[in-house]
Amino acid sequence: MEDFLKREYSLAKPYRGLGFSSSSQWDLMGTAMVTPDHVRLTPDLQSRQGAVWSRIPFFLRDWELKVHFKIHGLGKKNLNGDGLAIWLTKDRMQNGPVFGNMNQFVGLGIFVDTYPNADKSHDKTQPGTQRAFPYISVMLGNGTLSYDHDRDGRPTELGGCTAMARNAIYDTFLLVRYSKNRLMLMVDVDGKQEWKHCADITGVRLPTGYFFGASSATGDLSDNHDIISMKLYQLTVEKTPEEEEEEEEVTIPRVDNMEQFQVDVQEEGMSGVQFFFTLVFSILGLGVLAVVGLILYGRWKENRRKRFY
């Protein structure tokens, strides 16, 4: 498998393609600001939202995104928040409650969540409810699914892992690879310069024409959330004729064989109102036919009478 850096979809120093000019390839939103070393989505202050979004719709089918990020602040462990998100979505530049982006989004979201909302409310005696934070998770949105912030997105999570990425002494990276309808997420946060498996989901169907972005939000708790680079690589992948045929045009994101992405198509029954109007118009139609029939019958009788006289 070979890869090629696609600069038009990448964000890296010295951030020349970022700004408000007509030639820029990336837009800033909210509190996001550019420095020589990073794009700061939110500062270590309460109630901030910021984002950076690509202007260019994305049409590659096999790709890899390497994100170099940094989350750091003065707050003690579990007294910081909220995290950042990496996006590939249909809509761009939308404020909202999901790490600074809209809820019920359409597309892919990768969440680096630094605050354990769910573990504050779950029964500590129940096994399996606890997880260590920061936690990185994957969600695919189809426009109807909602990210449940109070439960750290668990109801819609496709996969994830713990990654000690906050206030790390090493550079922190995540890697998203999408090829042959398989989505893989890997992390490198402990300075070993090797990728650690985080999530692997097969049967993922992603439409093309979406936009890359990164966003962040702080609430009562805060942190600095920085993007140092987002580098997009096109993958050259050999595919069998069967795999080529399998690459159907997708209009709504979905995961094969997952119930929450199945849309039931039912034969439309007739509602009460529809039945009433159908009945009324049927009666009216029959009435009109009866009147026309009577008129024609009367004329026929009259013509016949004239013939005899």
TrEMBL record:
Signal peptide feature range: none
Query: Is Repeat found in the keyword set?
Result: no
Transmembrane residue ranges: 275-297
Q: How does it sit in the membrane?
A: Single-pass type I membrane protein; Single-pass membrane protein
Q: Name the UniProt key words of this record, in alphabetical order.
A: Disulfide bond, Glycoprotein, Golgi apparatus, Lectin, Membrane, Metal-binding, Signal, Transmembrane, Transmembrane helix
Which GO molecular-function terms appear in the entry? D-mannose binding; metal ion binding
Read off the InterPro entries from this record: ConA-like_dom_sf, Intracellular_Lectin-GPT, Lectin_leg
One example of a Gene Ontology biological process annotation = endoplasmic reticulum to Golgi vesicle-mediated transport
Q: Where in the cell is it found?
A: Endomembrane system; Golgi apparatus membrane
Coiled-coil residues: none
Indicate the segments forming the L-type lectin-like domain, all copies: 3-235
Q: Which GO terms describe its cellular component?
A: COPII-coated ER to Golgi transport vesicle; endoplasmic reticulum membrane; endoplasmic reticulum-Golgi intermediate compartment; Golgi membrane
* PROSITE patterns xref list: L_LECTIN_LIKE
Q: What is this protein called?
A: VIP36-like protein isoform X1
